[in-house]
Each structure stands twice: as C-alpha cells, then as structure tokens.
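Worked example 3. Consider a protein that binds zinc ion.
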Amino acid sequence: MERPVRFEHHRWLGDKRNQRVHDLDNIADACALDELLASERFAAFGPDLLAEARNRGYRPCGHCVKVAAASAAE
Ligand SMILES: [Zn+2]
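Given these inputs, the predicted complex is written out as structure tokens:
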C-alpha cells in the first residue's frame, strides 16, 4: 500500500476512534488506512515519534508497528 501523499513528512498517524497509531513506513492493507483518511479522524504527532503517540494514549497498531519499534519506545 502506498504512503498517503499528504503525510509524506510524517511517519506516525493516529486513529482517534480506537486510539491506535500506525507506522506509515510499514503500512499494511489490514490497517484500512484509506478508511481512516476518509473518516478524517486521524491525528499526526509533534514530534513525529512513536513515544509521543504513546504519551498521548495511543497504542501501536499490530499490523504495521514493528515489535522492535514498539518495545524501543517503552
Ligand atoms: Zn497499522
């Protein structure tokens, strides 16, 4: 799946509906990113880090967030 052009400068994208954060560098079809973008209930982070997403209460998506990245942010 292609990275959405509007987020070319972001890596992490949150879904406000279920408090999941996706890794745009490793996005999977199962993430249903098209559906998330269509809903416009997404969130970008500043700084654009998994740790920042976690600080805001987002949990890593199991489809696209690699275990190493997730554990490194613990
Ligand atoms: Zn995902």
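Take a moment to read the result before moving on. Residues 33-39 form the longest helix (7 residues). The longest strand covers residues 12-15.
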